[in-house]
Write a structure and sequence with these properties.
By secondary structure, this protein is of the alpha/beta class. The chain has 4 helices and 8 strands. The protein has one domain: 3-Layer(aba) Sandwich (Rossmann fold), CATH 3.40.50. Helix 1 packs across helix 2.
Length: 162
């Protein structure tokens, strides 16, 4: 199974993900083009596949442990041989100020990769993303959109579609 991307006039990528395997594949392809310091924001309704995408990414990077959504812990740190990957979930935030109160600013300025589920819950507090990914339910599968907001993000997406 191969994820087939289409690009619109603004450079945004889109694809239909037929099932969970396709979502895991997208995560694996993203893992292959990760660079330290990237901030990737994942949006979509509950059950849209955000954590599944992160699981595919981590598996491709060699992580064999359990990958769960950090809804209650807010962040899971994965120390991999090539980088530190921070998996955030801000679903429970009731106010964007909670991001500041949680003290996560340092992680977003360092060499680790930050994957953020529910970034809109910390709107106005988070630094701008390099890559934005939106997943939506679509029939039996998912539709995904990827957009780059920085030069690093554009390089990442260019490598992703090669």
């Amino acid at each position: 199974m191969t994820v087939a991307f289409q690009r619109n006039a603004s450079g945004e990528l889109s694809a239909h993900l037929e099932n969970e395997l396709a979502t895991l594949e997208l995560g694996a392809r993203l893992a292959a083009v990760l660079q330290g310091g990237l901030k990737i924001y994942l949006s979509g309704d509950l059950g849209a596949g955000k954590t599944t995408l992160v699981r595919g990414l981590l598996r491709a990077l060699g992580y064999r442990g359990r990958v769960k959504s950090p809804t209650f812990t807010l962040v899971e740190l994965y120390r991999l041989s090539s980088l530190n990957l921070y998996h955030f979930d801000f679903y429970r935030f009731g106010d964007p100020q909670e991001w500041i109160d949680a003290g996560f600013r340092e992680e977003f300025g360092g060499p680790g990769v930050c994957l953020v589920e529910w970034p809109e819950k910390a709107a106005g507090q988070l630094p701008p993303p390099d890559v934005r990914i939106r997943l939506d339910h679509a029939n039996a599968g998912r539709d995904v959109w990827l957009a780059a907001d920085t030069d690093e993000g554009r390089q990442c997406l260019e490598q992703l579609i090669r």
